[in-house]
Each structure stands twice: as C-alpha cells, then as structure tokens.
Write a structure and sequence with these properties.
single chain, alpha/beta, 6-stranded parallel β-sheet, 3-stranded parallel β-sheet, about 40% helix, globular
C-alpha cells in the first residue's frame, strides 16, 4: 500500500511530536504492508500550522536518512495537506507549500463542514493551471454527507478523491462510512490514506483492508497502490 495522507513528519503540525514517534509510526506502517508514504503536514495559512517548505524539507531529509539507516523498507515523499486558500499557487511559488513529491498533484482539505466560499472555482483555476487536485477525505465533510451531489459535481470538473482507511471501520462515524461506501460503488475513490497523526493500533489497517476487499474484490490494488504510484512516476 502507498499511504497518500500521513502526519508523521515530527514537530510540524498536530501529528507526530518527536523524531522517535515518527520512526515508530513509520515502522508500524511498514510492518502492516505500507511501502511508500507521502508525509503531508498541514499547511493552514495564518496559523501555527504553516511551517514553510524549507523547514519541512530539513526534517524530511533527517527522517528519511534515519529510515534508511534503520533499514525500514519504506520510501518517503514530502508534500502538504493544504487548507483551501485562494493563494495556493502564490504560496507554492514563494516556497511555502509543497506539491506531492515532485509531481503536479496537490492534496487539499476543506473545513470539516465542507463549506468554503467558491471552493469549486479555486479547484477549477488550479486544474486550468496544470495542477491535479486531490481532495482529502471528502467522506468526512458534513455538507458532503448531507448532499452527495457535491462530490459528483467535483468529480465532473476533474477533482480526485483521497479517502481515509479508517472511514470504512467507523473511525469517523457512520455517516462517513455510508458516504465512503457510496463513493466506492460509484468508483470515485482515487486513493486511500491513513491520515495517521500518532501511534495507534496498526491492526486497524489490516481490518480496513479486509473490509475493502469485499467491495473491490480483485481490484483493491488499483486504489491502494496503482493510482498513487502514478504520482510517484
């Protein structure tokens, strides 16, 4: 599995607090079948979760070297989970934000309500300018749970969707699970991520995959590995 959404870059946001915790998370994910991880710390402009790219890169390089030294068989890539903002392109140019790896893919989140003025227009402009927009965990946004058409509308303009593994095991509530199942049945999920912030029971990953296999049958590898592999390529 390739983990497309992960908060184990230490000391940056509300995720991993220490270098040691980061290594414990990465080792645990590796033990449960994760081969590649996109480290996606929050970037929320105007808050204390707006660490600039150079600082993230320094910690990323240090962590990647430690993973190699300890022979943990995981490849790390740097990105951001970007809180929706009209200045995303400008922030990329000024070295504040990071696309996923060295790609043109952006992982973007909305408020948990799913409400933000003209988010569709912002996505359209980014797509027009050559970026591929991936919306983080759409199944969790309350307005999307109430109005599934919002997801269909974003899909129609080319937005991709990253869903959380935990949603299929009720980690975020029944409505998130229901919405995810609809998306799976409509083949709208581009990729999954753990969205992991701290050390937890990694057996949850195995349990989630077991349930997803019932929906995807022999095609689960497409959303767990093949699609996100295209970002690395």
């Amino acid at each position: 599995m390739i983990d497309l959404h992960n908060h184990s870059l230490y000391g940056i946001d509300d995720g991993s607090r220490t270098y040691e915790e980061s290594l414990e998370i990465i080792r645990g994910l590796s033990d449960h079948g994760v081969t590649d991880i996109f480290l996606t710390p929050h970037y929320i402009a105007g808050t204390n979760q707006a660490s600039p790219r150079f600082e993230n890169t320094n910690r990323y390089n240090y962590l990647r070297a430690a993973v190699r030294h300890q022979r943990i068989p995981v490849n790390l890539y740097l990105g951001n989970e970007i809180y929706i903002d009209r200045d995303i392109e400008k922030l990329i140019r000024f070295g504040q934000l990071k696309t996923l790896g060295d790609s043109n893919y952006l992982l973007i989140e909305l408020p948990m309500s799913g409400e933000y003025a003209d988010y569709e227009g912002i996505f359209l402009q980014l797509i027009k300018d050559g970026y591929k927009v991936i919306l983080a965990h759409p199944e969790r946004y309350t307005s999307f749970q109430k109005d599934y058409n919002r997801i269909l509308e974003l899909n129609s303009i080319g937005v991709l969707f990253q869903c959380n593994l935990g949603s299929i095991i009720d980690q975020y509530g029944k409505e998130a699970r229901k919405t995810l199942i609809k998306m799976i049945r409509d083949d709208l999920v581009f990729a999954f991520g753990t969205d992991i912030h701290h050390v937890r029971d990694f057996k949850e990953i195995d349990r989630a995959r077991d349930i997803l296999e019932k929906y995807y049958e022999d095609d689960l590898g497409r959303v767990l590995t093949n699609n996100p592999r295209s970002i690395i390529a």
